[in-house]
Amino acid sequence: MRTARGLLVLLAASALVIGCGGGGGDHQAAPGGPGANDAAINDRVVGYFQRAIDTPGVAFKVTSLAPDSPIPGFRSGKLEASLGEQKQEVGFLVSRDGRWLFRGDPVDLTVDPRKAIMDKISLADQPTRGPADAKVTIVEYSDFQCPYCGRAWELLEKEVLPKYGDKVRFVFKQMPLVQIHPWAEGAAIASECAYQQGNDAFWALYNGLFSQQASITPENLREKVESIASGAKGVDVTKLLACFDGRSTLAAVQADMKEAADAGVNSTPTFIINGRRVSGAQDAAQFGKIIDDELAAGPGPKPAS
């Protein structure tokens, strides 16, 4: 399984709760004390992590800082860690006086965590198979070049989806890992171009790209897309290639990637099954157990439309 967790591991090496203000006699100061301005908080957060994590080449910056958060006395923000082309964001809470920082996002314990994940997933105008009212919804975040995603494709198509039929709704989301897979983004763009011509056109590209994964290169991707599209019923190949050449669907691909990040997905393949996260190419028995549990349970959490 390919993953982008390396930077998060570095962040995890630092304290969960940090005192950004240094030593002194004000250790009992409350989070609701005099507010620090944005620049001061930015400097303290970045300065702390630069000192706490001394891995060469890792840089930090605060990418957002909200005026408040769900927790009184704290502000919420996002910290970006970058190493070359690799980037990872993590949420944090910081006291208004700029002294105390908690990594991560606040968790409302009164909210169903599976529903909270599903509410971050949009199913409007997405490649979908199975009935909209199926009791089980499987959302996959995937990369056409990822070999583990190729294994997951074979497993789903040959064993899982045929077994459950209309009991399951399957939705595909784009998550090309562009730093390590040079033709993945192009394949995602091509499949979204196909989707503009209909759901069936998308699944024809989806099956073709995964089935020929081992023989695709950055140099022959366009040729492969043309060949797959030419063999698909009802696909306007000229229109699809014009869309592909113009990268017209890049925004749709990027929207899926942003959604994945918002849902805490950072590896491919990742499946969200009624709000239950499954990472990596599992075997049929593991998929089956989760699906059977959800079918036997009461109504599951549904995604936002």
Q: Can you tell me about this structure?
A:
This protein is α+β, with helices and mostly antiparallel strands and 305 residues long. The protein has 2 domains: 2-103; 114-296, Glutaredoxin, CATH 3.40.30. The chain has 10 helices and 12 strands. It has helices spanning 6-12, 38-52, 113-118, 147-164, 184-195, 199-211, 221-230, 237-245, 250-262, 284-296, and strands spanning 2-3, 17-19, 58-65, 74-83, 86-95, 100-103, 128-129, 136-142, 168-174, 267-268, 270-273, 276-279. It has a 5-stranded antiparallel β-sheet with strand order 2-6-5-4-3. Helix 7 packs antiparallel against helix 8. The protein is globular.
Observed structural traits:
2 domains, 38% helix, globular, alpha+beta, disordered N terminus, Glutaredoxin, 10 helices
How does CATH name the architecture of the largest domain? 3-Layer(aba) Sandwich
The largest β sheet comes out as:
5 strands, antiparallel
Count of discrete domains: 2
User: Secondary-structure element order, as H and E?
Assistant: EHEHEEEEHEEHEHHHHHEEEH
The poorly predicted ranges are: 1-5, 12-30
CATH superfamily of the largest domain: Glutaredoxin
CATH class of the largest domain: Alpha Beta
Calculate Rg over CA atoms. Answer: 22 Å
Distance between the termini: 29 Å
Strand content: 15-25%
Give me the side-by-side strand order of the main sheet: 2-6-5-4-3
